[in-house]
Amino acid sequence: MQNTTIIETPLSYSYEGTKEIGLLRMIIEDIRCALQRDPAARNWIEVLFNYSGLHAIWGYRITHWLWIKKVYFLARWISQIVRWLTGIEIHPGAVIGRRFFIDHGMGVVIGETSEIGNDVTLYHDVTLGGVSLEKGKRHPTLGDKVVVGAGAKILGAIEIGEGSRVGANAVVVKTVPPDSVVVGIPGQVVKRSHKRLSDAPDLHHDRLPDTIGQSLQQVLARLDYLEEKLQVREEPHIHTDEEGYWIGTDFSI
After folding, report:
1. Does one domain contain both 129 and 215?
2. Which helix (H) or strand (E) holds 247?
3. Nearest 5°: phi and psi at 143?
4. Are 184 and 150 in a shared domain?
5. How confident is the model at residue 155 (pLDDT cuts 50, 70, 90)?
6. Among 49, 89, 122, 145, which residue carries the largest CB count within 10 Å?
7. pTM of the model
8. Residue 227's domain spans which residues?
9. Is the distance from CB of 202 to CB of 162 less than 8 angstroms?
10. What's the structural domain count of the chain?
11. Distance of alpha carbon 68 from the chain centroid
């Protein structure tokens, strides 16, 4: 993840490795980002007026500028107004990079010490939350090009490595290495077995490996092999059919 420490200028932002960019230019960049990542977006006018995720981000840019100027009360007050209008809560103290996109957005919560890199995508009901009452860093850090699926919760001062994808409704409580996929509760980290073919964010948060199911299938396959070798093979009570559906008389349904 690039260092996203902000060099403050009046309503403009600069990140290490990027040129200084004004608020108006950033708005244009965000609109282009929405058009690229949301197939439902038809034109820039629709995105400008109807995308609450972008409105929340633009509100955050203003409140964060106030926050680093130590105008804390006004920053929090404006952020509350943006929350009422959009259903998205972004603490002014969070540090967020460029081309950040929140799709749908309702219910998203981003805590005070969260850090988000460039080209990150969040879907609705995502929480970047803290798990400590202590001051200091207590919220997650998301690397560049991370995608977080709907309903996912990322908790604590952990890091999500660059290019990783968090599956819908996953609960992540430990650091995730780059180019990984996280599924389940608590989140199980699966490293990619194939290289990504593109530098674009991986929006396929529907492609989730079934770590427990696949492991159980392997155990059952080994058990069938041993029973066959020992000539004590019985008809399996629980197994998967050719389409991958679980069937068996042991299920209480």
Report:
1. no
2. strand 246-248
3. -75, 175
4. yes
5. very high
6. 122
7. 0.77
8. 211-248
9. no
10. 2
11. 25
pLDDT at 82: 96
In single-letter form, the type of residue at position 189 comes to: V
CB 43 within 8 A of CB 37: no
> What number of other Cβ atoms are within 10 A of residue 116's Cβ?
25
How many Cα atoms sit within 13 Å of 215 on the Cβ side? 6
Two tokens at 187?
Answer: 């989140």
| Mean pLDDT computed over 112-129 | 95
Rounded Cα distance, 148 and 204, in Å: 10
194 three-state secondary structure: coil
Residues 130 and 69 occupy one common structural domain: yes
Whether residue 96 contacts residue 13, with contact meaning beta carbons closer than 8 Å, is answered with no
Q: What does the block give as tokens for 129? A: 């939350």
SS3 22: strand
State the pLDDT confidence band at 224, using cuts at 50, 70 and 90: confident
pLDDT tens, position by position, 4-37: 443 333 344 444 434 456 778 888 899 998 998 8
Q: How far apart are CA 204 and CA 46, in angstroms?
A: 24
- Alpha carbon distance 207, 202 (integer Å): 10
57: Cβ contacts below 8 Å, ≥ 6 apart: 30, 90, 96, 100, 102
Tokens at residue 65, please? 């500028």
∠ Cα 179 182 186 (to 5°): 150
- Say if CB 146 and CB 166 are below 8 A apart: yes
Return all residues near 31 (Cβ < 8 A) that are at least 6 apart.
44, 47, 48, 54
